[in-house]
Amino acid sequence: MEALEDSRVVLIYREELLELMKNDRCFLENYLMIQSDLGKALNSRIRLLSYEKAEDRLFRYLEVHDDEISFNSVTELAGTLGVKRETLSRLLSRLQKEKKIARNGKRLKVL
User: 77 FRET partner, CA 20 to 30 A, in 9, 59, 93, 108?
Assistant: First the structure.
């Protein structure tokens, strides 16, 4: 994973973190928002991975994203869905032939 912009990592010990939270309301609110977003993302990922079939995972992912997505690569999308790239490639080809999805380059849409 790479940072999108110049960044730095800071180590904050537990006691210092608690002190920051106690003394800086803005810090506390931002921290809680980040933790909440992380929890939501993990919950969404667990829900997606609870589907056994690759097709079910793909359609659930599309549903969550208003039936249309853009992706950087089939490999990346396969990783997101928790399936092998080869499995996803075959699935995309089949679903296109069955006219269940439309693929235009790096975009997928449910038909």
Answer: 9
Q: What angle do CA 100, 80, 11 make, to 5 degrees?
A: 160
Q: How far is CA 84 from CA 54, 88, 90, in A?
A: 9, 6, 10
Identity of residue 14:
R
pTM > 0.85: no
Q: Is 77 exposed, middle or buried (0-12, 13-18, 19+ CB in 10 A)?
A: buried
Q: What confidence tens digit (pLDDT) does each residue in 22-77 have?
A: 999 999 999 999 999 999 999 999 999 999 999 999 999 999 999 999 999 999 99
